[in-house]
Amino acid sequence: MWQSSPPERLKTTLCGPFKYRKELSLISFVQRYVHVHTWLYGHYRAFSKLLCWDPSLQAPYHASPLEIAAKLGINEKSATAFWRHLHKTTPENMYANLVETGIQVLPLFHPLYPPLLKTIYDPPYLLYAKGNIKRLQTKKIAICGTRTPTAYGRAALATIAKPISEHSLTIVSGMARGIDGLAHEQAIRTGGATIAVLGSGFDNIYPPEHSTLFHALAEHQLLLSEYPPFVKPQRWHFPVRNRIVSGLSQAVIIIEAKRKSGSLITADLALEQGRDVFAVPGPVTSAQSEGTNWLISQGAGCLYTSEALFEAMPQLLSKTGESQSF
Prior knowledge:
alpha/beta; nine-stranded mixed β-sheet; 13 helices
């Protein structure tokens, strides 16, 4: 449910407190917000400048490409493309198309936008969601790892993930090959909750072999993306996506990772965001355990048993939902 007053809480650090004329319709504002985001999704600074230029998001519809370029700090070619986008479709039609395909939109000021995610340095201005939105109101633990798990890694995942689901915590991951996809499947298998954060829009399932998992998550769990539905996966999307995986969660668990891997990038992001990082130790003879063993040597929590997470973070066992602080 939307809040009844204009979204003055959007982000006061942008250029002073947001100010809106009282007569502005909130739903019309949200439609414009989504409309401009579907082109500016990859231009974080430009979107920020747009909100500072005109918090009501009406000015760009009446501006020339040259004025848009100057106000947003983008080149004239990009400004012209943005101008064409604004006049090729309407905010109302674009918003209606999303609703018709079962996509919910969560702008930064939406009451269901995850409080913990708001605390990171660069929270997404807009989240696209499919599935059970109530998953966002739960306490969440991220599980990440190698795309090529060993038998040991698979067994460790099952051992670690089972009590997490049993204690009504939601498992967050990136639906990638290997540990990520297995973490979602483990949560489903044990009757738990899980959220997948994607590096593409919902019309472009990646990896393609996870199509069945994607649809299962959309029906009973939750899919999130900061990318509009039409956006295809790009290599650089996935490290950016990882900040959301860790930002949603109170702790990040790494299960098997090479010394240089995307999972360790997620661990670094988690530390920057003030999250707890845990790793599952592995055989010193396994290249897939080099990263996790290194993390432990650097001070990450060692998950030597299935209950070690709760020994280190007993607050996870309380029955309250997600809090805004640790």
